[in-house]
Write a structure and sequence with these properties.
33% of the residues lie in helices and 26% in strands. The protein has 14 helices and 18 strands. The protein has an eleven-stranded antiparallel β-sheet. Strands 12-13-14-18-17-16-15 form a seven-stranded antiparallel β-sheet, sandwiched between helices. The N and C termini lie far apart (57 Å).
Length: 504
């Protein structure tokens, strides 16, 4: 049964701003509607290509949904991608106001006990947002398991979805605040936005937080800020550590946000944007006794020999200097720290057994220690749907014969592990025992006749990679990898040197 959703009947024009010398994409108006006690914030402001990606991806997913391609669990993933695709077209801010959890009885197992968040979207015409919200609601709710009603008066007029047989905090509300589309989860979340909008000059906003102001000051070098991620670690400590205990501490340690007895980081900010065609990203960290700031990716000066590795057709690029083995270890440990102990032990045991059976001694020493330090990221060739994450990554290596010989064996290990993960029972039949329909939406790793490995879910390729004499080439498809390999063969390879990351 279709459920009616709408916005109050008021104009929603988008006001144009006079040109300034500061970066575009700061989303200051939306950030000012959040209090300084917010737990986490993600702010995004697209470039023009984001609009094209959102329209193309939404069309594909809508067609697939109408054809009944998705099963119920796959529909959740499809709806998630649909929301991301729609949001990619407009400036938006996602804020976490409150979160709490409770243990469920099993070791390392917890359930969500309370949750409160808000999504602010600046787009002008909100018919698309309402249409997507209606489709999402219709996938999961009808009049028998949920109720939609109008609540509030005047500027606070909005719609509310209350789900039957669900926790009291699981309440959805949406409406229009000024020129913003606002969607919230949790009682009182919508009122917070309304109150802050009505008292625009009151102090204590997120934009008054010194670290936020510092990031905005240093980001003045950008032409356009693409996104900002803010974590109020001090408040997250207070909310989550008493319940999660050592599991929370392990996550912070894995993320390098804890100094043990010296205390945890208080605030963390990641920002990224464009300076001409260079993609610049930075990390800001506030510790109990100091604040740190540094670059994660940079651009290159004109005439730098490393620019030869960036195809002239690329519209953007970034350069990083990285110890790849440390990054892989950090990512692995961060992921494992979020698993309960029993599952973590099983995953590690499976990995160690498969690695040993593949004849590998130490994957870090045999592969990852040879990679880096130069990492170059660019956007050639362009993705047909302008997917903003469809980039090409060139990771330098030391040219040793071992790294090229070990690469296919390591990929074979990951292929086998994925097959084990996809198996309906804890055996190794994996995809061989799955039906065509089941295997269509399983994460798989395969290899082309040209030796390019590609990770995919059914027909959707997520990433592909191949090893050359001097680089590991990763891109969004096997043909994209092949194009970059052909380009690298044509150019005069620059002398390898570490990319210089400037000091703060």
């Amino acid at each position: 049964m279709s459920m009616l959703i709408a916005l109050p009947g008021r104009g929603a024009g988008q006001t144009s701003k006079p040109p300034t010398s500061e970066p575009t994409g700061l989303n200051r108006d939306m950030l000012s509607l959040l209090g300084g006690d917010v737990l986490a914030v993600y702010s995004y402001s697209p470039v023009e290509s984001g609009q094209q990606f959102g329209q193309s991806m939404m069309g594909l997913l809508s067609a697939a949904g109408m054809l009944g391609v998705f099963k119920p669990d796959q529909q959740v993933l499809a709806d998630t991608v649909s929301v991301i695709a729609e949001l990619s077209k407009f400036p938006h801010v996602l804020a976490l106001f409150d979160v709490a959890s409770q243990p469920t009885g099993g070791e390392g197992s917890f359930r969500l006990d309370h949750f409160s968040m808000a999504l602010l979207v600046q787009g002008g015409d909100y018919a698309a947002q309402l249409s997507l919200l209606k489709k999402t609601i219709d996938h999961y709710f009808d009049s028998e398991n949920a109720t939609i009603s109008w609540v509030g008066e005047g500027a606070a007029r909005r719609q509310r979805l209350v789900m039957h047989h669900m926790p009291e905090w699981d309440v959805w509300e949406w409406g229009q605040v000024g020129d913003l589309f606002v969607f919230t989860v949790g009682p009182g979340a919508y009122e917070r936005i309304i109150a802050n909008a009505a008292a625009a000059d009151q102090p204590g906003r997120l934009t008054d937080v010194p670290m936020i102001q510092r990031a905005e000051l240093h980001d003045q070098e950008m032409d356009h800020r693409l996104w900002l991620l803010y974590l109020n670690v001090q408040e997250l400590d207070r909310k989550l550590q008493p319940v999660l205990g050592e599991y929370y501490d392990q996550v912070l340690a894995a993320l390098k946000l804890s100094l043990g007895d010296e205390g945890n980081a208080r605030q963390v900010i990641l920002t990224a944007g464009y300076r001409q065609r260079a993609f610049v990203s930075k990390l800001y960290t506030a510790w109990p006794d100091r604040a740190e700031y540094g670059y994660l990716t940079i651009g290159l000066e004109k005439g730098d020999p490393l620019l030869a590795l960036v195809p002239p057709e690329a519209t953007s690029y970034a350069v990083a200097s990285a110890k790849v083995s440390d990054i892989v270890a950090w990512a692995t440990n961060s992921y494992l720290s979020t698993r309960n102990p029993r599952r973590r032990e099983r995953m590690v045991a499976n990995y160690e057994r498969v690695v040993a059976e593949a004849g590998l001694d130490d994957v870090y020493a045999q592969l990852f220690d040879h990679l880096g330090p130069e990492v170059i990221i660019h956007d050639w060739p362009a993705h047909p749907f302008n997917w903003p994450f469809a980039k090409t990554i060139l990771v330098s290596h030391d040219g040793s014969l071992e790294v090229r010989k070990v690469w296919p064996r390591v990929m074979g290990v990951w292929q086998r592990l994925l097959n084990m993960l996809n198996a309906p029972e804890p055996n190794e039949t994996g995809l061989e025992s799955a039906s065509w329909g089941e295997s269509l939406f399983q994460l798989q790793l395969n290899r082309t006749e040209e030796g390019i490995w590609f990770l995919h879910v059914g027909p959707l390729v997520l990433a592909a990679g191949a090893m050359t004499d001097q680089h590991l080439v990763i891109s969004w498809s096997a043909p994209a990898v092949a194009h970059n390999m052909a380009y690298l063969r044509k150019i005069e390879m620059p002398t390898s040197r570490p990319a210089i990351i400037p000091a703060p």
